[in-house]
Amino acid sequence: MAIRIDQVVTRTGDDGRTSLGDGTRTAKDSLRVEAYGSVDEANAAVGVLRLHVADDKALDAVLARIQHGLFDIGGDLCIPGAPDAPYRIDDRLLRLVEAEIAVLVERQAPLDSFVLPGGSAGAAHAHVVRTVIRRAERRVVRLAAAEPVNPLVVRTLNRLSDYAFVLARHLNDDGRADVVWTRGR
């Protein structure tokens, strides 16, 4: 599919409405726009995380693939209709993320406490990614209660937040430098 964007400023959204992927006009605060907007925020957070892991080319490549996948998810969400339509995402990103989680977890120290967001700069940003993805997931679940949504979107977002947690631990010396929660501290 060729995409060409000749005009960025269209003024068509000045009335508080936007166009969905099928051309339908809707309010900018609709459940659908909130859902794919939150996915867009998650994508931006992954972009910031990539700045902190740029020296690790393999990890940067995985995060780049995740960014493309998040854009695909946003595209899936911006088009209302049957959740099994042919333009919907498939399970490739889900499989990639599950494989990456398995590799990282194998190296990590066992969890014996809750982990606080922090540690290295990369880990702290991975935790931000995790929380932004969790918010996107909640928005998509809310949308799915009202309108058809591809069920792979929720599963993939759930797994992506798991990956961000495991990645944060990896970036904290595979969990050995995690900042752990101590009750009442």
Write a structural description.
With 185 residues, the protein is mainly α. It has one domain (27-176): Cobalamin adenosyltransferase-like (Hypothetical Protein Ta1238, Chain: A, Up-down Bundle). The protein has five helices and four strands. The protein has helices at residues 31-52, 57-77, 92-107, 121-146, 151-171; strands at 17-19, 25-27, 115-116, 179-180. Strands 1-2 form a two-stranded antiparallel sheet. A two-stranded antiparallel sheet has the order 3-4. A hairpin with a 5-residue loop joins strand 1 (17-19) and strand 2. Helix 4 packs antiparallel against helix 5. The protein is elongated. The mean pLDDT is 91.
- Output mean pLDDT: 91
CATH class descriptor name: Mainly Alpha
Principal-axes geometry comes out as elongated
CATH topology grouping:
Hypothetical Protein Ta1238, Chain: A
Order of helices and strands: EEHHHEHHE
Indicate the radius of gyration in whole angstroms. 18 Å
Q: Estimate the helix proportion, in percent.
A: 55-70%
Largest sheet: 2 strands, antiparallel
Structural domain tally: 1
* Helix/strand/pairing category: mainly alpha
Please report which band the strand proportion falls in: under 5%, 5-15%, 15-25%, 25-35%, 35-45% or over 45%: 5-15%
The helix tally amounts to 5
